[in-house]
Automatic annotation (TrEMBL):
Hydrolase is among the record's keywords: yes
Database matches in Gene3D superfamilies: Metalloproteases ('zincins'), catalytic domain
Name used for this protein in its record: Endoribonuclease YbeY
Cofactor or coenzyme needed: Zn(2+)
Amino acid sequence: MSLVIRNLQRVIPIRRAPLRSKIEIVRRILGVQKFDLGIICVDNKNIQHINRIYRDRNVPTDVLSFPFHENLKAGEFPQPDFPDDYNLGDIFLGVEYIFQQCKESEDYNDILTVSGGTEST
């Protein structure tokens, strides 16, 4: 199914092709290529706003995930009954925050793909 990457910020340049390629590799490894997934790149202001609303934490963060299937335990995969349920949900990447956290020797584009999935709502 589809992988949608949306860049809703203009602070940090996003290299979509390498990001998409690395996410597709992870999807293949996990065996979830048939599931839809949304990746949304946002700045500090927007990730902080989302973090405040959904986690009651008024600070920017690196990643917030919003699973489509809410009752799964860690490591479980959805078992959809209907075609519309083949959806993993959305992952918001605080790309400005991630960039600010990179050490001088780290490649931001590599760190960006490693960050996905560390925070869940």
